[in-house]
């Protein structure tokens, strides 16, 4: 089911003008894939099945970490935490939830936003002693 969410997110990115189709950061042997977009891009049934609030004022952040040193680039379970700041420096702590479906592992958090608002994200990602990094990116959100 979460692969359906990922498919919707990837297809959505193909049609969103200001977003790169592939958002990833390579750190050593790990690829960190990330996307942030409005929760309204999810269908009501998918949002409900994963406990994601679907609203024109809530964005979702989806992060996965793949080990590129192993055949098939399997996902790895990580410790993840983060904050989001808007341009007025209002801080929002991101509460990530791990979602596993088959071999896939995703980390999803929700973030409130206002129309035409740019949000800066800082996400700390740790995988034992093999990976300890910070992912920084920004995303502009629009109310539909």
Which tags fit this structure?
144 residues; mainly beta; Immunoglobulin-like; 5-stranded antiparallel beta sheet; 4-stranded antiparallel beta sheet; 2 helices; 9 strands; 14% helix; globular
Indicate the mean pLDDT: 85
> How much strand?
over 45%
| Main structural class | mainly beta
The CATH superfamily is Domain of unknown function DUF4426
> What is the N-to-C order of secondary-structure elements (H for helix, E for strand)?
HEEHEEEEEEE
Radius of gyration equals 15 Å
CATH architecture: Sandwich
CATH class: Mainly Beta
Shape: globular
Q: What does the model show?
A:
The structure is a single chain. The protein is mostly beta strands and about 140 residues long. The protein has a single domain, classed as Immunoglobulin-like. Helix content is about 15%, strand content about 50%. The protein has helices spanning about 1-15, 45-50; strands spanning about 25, 30-40, 60-65, 80-85, 90-95, 95-100, 105-110, 115-125, 130-140. The strands form 2 sheets. It has a 5-stranded antiparallel beta sheet, with helices on one face. The protein has a 4-stranded antiparallel beta sheet with strand order 5-4-8-9, with no helix packed on it. Residues about 5-20 have low confidence and may be disordered.
